[in-house]
Design goal:
85% of the residues lie in helices and 0% in strands. The chain is an all-alpha fold. It has one domain: Orthogonal Bundle (Helix Hairpins). Helix 1 crosses helix 3 and helix 2 packs antiparallel against helix 3.
C-alpha cells in the first residue's frame, strides 16, 4: 500500500518538474536539509524524529523511482550494509 502511494506521489512530482534532473536535485536538497534536524531530534530523544525519518524514507524511495534504480542494485546495497554493520561491531 505504501509503495503505491509513494509511486503516485513520485508521479505527481514528475508532472510538476519538467526535468528529472531538477526533480532529483530537489529531492537531494530535501534529504540534505533533514540530516541536521535528524541529528538534533535524535540527541534530544524527540519523538518527532520518527516523522522526519519517514520523510527521508519517502524521499529516498522517490529518488529510486525518479532515477529508475533497478531492484538488483538495491539488493546489492543491502548486502553491503550488512558488511558495514558487521565492521562497525568489530571496531
Amino acid at each position: 500500500m505504501i509503495d503505491k502511494e509513494i509511486k503516485k506521489l513520485t508521479e505527481y512530482g514528475q508532472k510538476q518538474f519538467s526535468e528529472p534532473e531538477d526533480y532529483t536535485k530537489f529531492g537531494l536538497d530535501e534529504i540534505e536539509h533533514h540530516v541536521p534536524e535528524l541529528r538534533n531530534l535524535h540527541a534530544k530523544k524527540d519523538p518527532h524524529l520518527h516523522a522526519e525519518l519517514a520523510d527521508v524514507y519517502i524521499w529516498a524511495r522517490m529518488l529510486l523511482e525518479i532515477n529508475s534504480v533497478d531492484e538488483r542494485i538495491v539488493r546489492q546495497r543491502i548486502e553491503r550494509f550488512k558488511e558495514k554493520i558487521n565492521k562497525a561491531l568489530e571496531e
